[in-house]
Design goal:
The chain has six helices and five strands, in the order αβαβαβαβαβα. The protein is an alpha/beta fold. Helix 3 links the parallel strand 2 and strand 3.
């Protein structure tokens, strides 16, 4: 009979441990930050988003196009090599807590970059549905492009 009491207590302790472990996992899942994926449809939405302190605008166009004109504060990351250079930069310089806006010519490169970063665990991604030329046209005379050498040679 003494043996049965030990076995019963052992089972109860095991059930308590399992219950507490399950509760801890549930709490962790419920309190984990949720991914925020956005499609940016308008110029005003982009402009207000990139003004935030934790925002990062990545211009995925080629280096020469970036140098000819870009949005102030944009970081040029030509989407080549399946995004390896962009990932290296983000891992070293920015981390996963930034609100990342991805812009290119027409949306193809930014779509690929979006999928890559999402798969790598980036949670605050903003796919800019329109391209740089659309941005310039929509802004009209209010937009003064920044010109100059691309600092992208120094990344990575």
């Amino acid at each position: 009979m003494h043996e049965n009491n030990k076995t019963g207590k052992g089972i109860i302790i095991l059930l308590i441990i399992i219950t507490l472990s399950s509760l801890a996992v549930t709490i962790a899942l419920l309190t984990a930050p949720k991914p925020e994926y956005t499609i940016v449809l308008g110029v005003d939405e982009l402009n207000s988003g990139i003004k935030k302190e934790d925002a990062l605008l990545i211009d995925l166009r080629d280096e020469k196009d970036y140098e000819a004109g870009h949005i102030d504060g944009a970081i040029n990351m030509p989407y080549v090599d399946d995004g390896v250079k962009m990932l290296d930069y983000l891992k070293k310089q920015a981390g996963k807590n930034y609100r990342i806006y991805l812009m290119c010519y027409h949306g193809n490169r930014s779509g690929m970059a979006f999928n890559l970063l999402r798969d790598e665990g980036y949670r605050n991604l903003n796919y800019v549905k329109f391209g740089y030329e659309d941005y310039v046209n929509a802004m009209g005379s209010k937009f003064k492009p920044i010109q100059g050498e691309c600092p992208c040679k120094n990344y990575g």
